[in-house]
Amino acid sequence: MSQKSTRRDFLKQSSALGAAWWVGSSTVGWTQPKSSIETIRFACIGVDGKGSSDRDDAGRHGEIVALCDVDSERLDKAAARYPKAKKFTDYRKMYDEIGGEFDAITVSTPDHSHAPAAIRGMRMGKHCFCQKPMTYTVAEARMMRELAAEKKLCTQMGNQGTASSGLREAVQIIRRGDIGQVKEIHIWTNRPIWPQGQGRPAGSEPVPPHLNWDAFLGPAPERPYASVYHPFKWRGWIDFGTGALGDMACHTMNMSVMALQLFNPISVESMPDPDWTGDAKKESYPKFCTVKYEFGPRGDFGPCTLYWYEGGKRPPEELHAPIKQGASGSLVIGEKGKIFSDNDYHGTYTLLPKETFTDHKKPEIVQSPGHFTEFANAIKEGKPELALSNFDYAGRLTETVLLGNIALRAGGKVEWDGVNMKVTNNPSAQQFVTREYRKGWELF
Questions:
Q1: Would you call 195 exposed, middle or buried from its count of C-beta atoms within 10 A (0-12, 13-18, 19+)?
Q2: In the predicted structure, residue 230 carries a pLDDT above the cut 80
Q3: Does 23 score more than 80 pLDDT?
Q4: Which residue intervals of 287-390 are DSSP H helices?
Q5: 42, 102, 215, 300: which sits with the fewest CB atoms below 10 Å from its CB?
Q6: Is residue 183 within 8 Å of residue 260, measured between CB atoms?
């Protein structure tokens, strides 16, 4: 993997990305671009759960020629809707057998298979829509970002709030200085809503006949099948998911990260459940946790601290009084005011104190035609920047998010050299920047 970016280049590229969307924008809607590809041919990897909406979005914007899912019951359910599509339970066979028959892929698998499934296609020149978090590791996020740029691919991560007008307005409010210099951010979630903080299930269960367990494991180490892993509860298991951070932070941190260029924190510190020990610590994420991110100066932005709360932990409610605190939320504190949102996607927000912003004028923004439509338009126009959460941005966002899990698994505070992807204060934590891949499931 190349390490081509200097910090100056990094900030310059980030600013350029923002300028393409926010400077001189207007509320005028998009026009459908002229198509250089008459019909986008899609292959969908992971076609139920969240994959069902990604699959149907692909079907609305083009032709689905292949469906792939490790669960044949789910696969057959999707195939009934798209009977012309070829079916696979192993994406490697799909690429090998019909790789020349599609232009773009959607990847909606468990987190641990995002990068192996996506990178194989991207190296074949396939445009890629990948669910959040973009990857399982920080190193994979960097690799996918660089690969997308190298291949000039159109990409989009599935954090749909990026397309909302509320998020785009809030970004512009912060960028034009309406709430002043930001020094503190608090973000909390109701996750996990699945089992965590426990060891591996004892014994083994028969693998259901409709499940390709080998393909489900993919790059993860071999282990016996247990019904607690599939179809949804995989998120809390370290080998398969990225926990509450991976599930929600690409949504709930998105506005703050985009507005303030919160990339490459100088340190990240985790404060997990003290009972998270032994086998539980090896196998699953803790029942609750708080993570503290410290960011240094970034262009026109000064140092700031971001706090992440999960598993019932929350910031002091008086920070956003008189608004009542919900199960999840986001609070950005500036020197002249605050932005509060209790919407996971930051689709709505409130400026505080309310009396200060009675006559506040909303910023003009570029309205999105729809999150997946941005991706399809980018392919048709041949302009990757039309998708706002393209991998140039989403890769950086994902790195920021997943650094919280590095600190969590390392057991405390890690100091971070983002340009070189190195933990500088704890050599043992470096192992969590990347991972080992089971034979046959390496990054292609």
A1: middle
A2: yes
A3: no
A4: 371-381
A5: 300
A6: no
